Amino acid sequence: MGTHHNSPNIHLPKHALLEHKLTRLRDKETPPAVFRKLVHEITQILLIDATRDLPTHPESRHTPLAAFSGATLSQQIGIVPILRAGLGMCESAQALLPLARVLHVGFARNEETLEPCFYYDNLPIPPNIDIAIVVDPMVATGGSAIATLSRLKETGIREIRFVGLVGAPEGVDALHSAHTDVPIWLAAIDTHLNECGYIVPGLGDAGDRIMDT
User: Fold this and answer.
1) pLDDT at 162 over 90
2) Helices (H), 55-205
3) Binning pLDDT at 50, 70 and 90, where does residue 5 land?
4) Residues 176, 185: contact at Cβ < 8 Å?
C-alpha cells in the first residue's frame, strides 16, 4: 500500500457484491460481453457511493394520495470518460445520472515513455457543468488521470470526483498528490505496476477487454 491510502479522499467501498463482481472481472476466462456487463455493474456500485452527498434542494410534489416534500439534485453534473477505456464506464454512469452532460477527454499512452499524449477534448469554456465525475477503469501510472483533472481545472471546473475500477499504488499516490482536492473512488488498489506499466494483478488492458480488440 502506498502513502496516501488512509487519506479521507481515497474511497474503497466495502461491499460483498463489489468483491464478487471484481473477482469475475479480473478472471482472464471472462468473455468480453460478460466483462462489459461487470464493468457496468461495478461502476454503478461505485457511483452510488461517489454521489451520496451531491447537493439537493427541497421540492414539493404530490403522490396519488397527498402532497409531500422531496429533493431534487441542484447542480448540473458532467460525466467525463477518459477515452478510450472510460467509455466502458460512461453508459452505466448515464443510466444512473440521465440528466448529466457527457464531456470527453482523450489521452493515449506513449508505450515507450508511458506518458499520456493529449489528442482531444470537447470541454466548453466557461464550463457548462458544476460537478465533473471523471471515469476511467485503470489508474496505472496515473498520468492520464492527472492530465485530465488539470485540463478540467483549466476550463474553470471547480468540483471534480474521480471514479475508477482498479489502481496501482504508484498511480493512486501520484494522482492524489497532484490533485489532493479530488476524491477518488476505486473498487481495489492492487500490489504494483510492472515494468511495462501494467497493474498487477490488475485485469489486463481494460480498453481491449471492453472493446474485444
Assistant:
1) yes
2) 87-96, 143-154, 169-178
3) low
4) no
Task: Please tell me the distance from the alpha carbon of residue 158 to that of residue 150, in angstroms, as a whole number.
Answer: 11
Name the residue among 110, 36, 24, 43 with its Cα closest to residue 81. 43
Task: Spell 35-62 as b/e; 16+ CB within 10 A means b.
Answer: bbebbbbbbebbbebbbeebeeeeeeee
Average of per-residue pLDDT across 47-74: 97
Averaged confidence pLDDT in the chain:
92
More confident residue, 96 or 206: 96
DSSP state of 77: E
Alpha helices (H) in the chain, listed in sequence order: 16-26, 32-50, 87-96, 143-154, 169-178, 206-211
Q: 152 with 125: CB under 8 angstroms?
A: no
Kindly provide the b/e burial profile for residues 141-164, where b requires at least 16 CB atoms within 10 angstroms of the residue's own CB: bbbbbbbbbebbeebebebbbbbb
What is the Cα 185 distance to its own chain's centre?
7
pLDDT score of 211: 79
Domain 10-52+76-211 is in which class?
alpha beta
DSSP, res 179: -
What is this structure's pTM?
0.92
Instruction: Find out whether 58 and 48 touch, Cβ atoms under 8 Å.
Output: no
Q: Domain ranges in the chain?
A: 10-52+76-211
32, 212 contact by CB (below 8 A) = yes
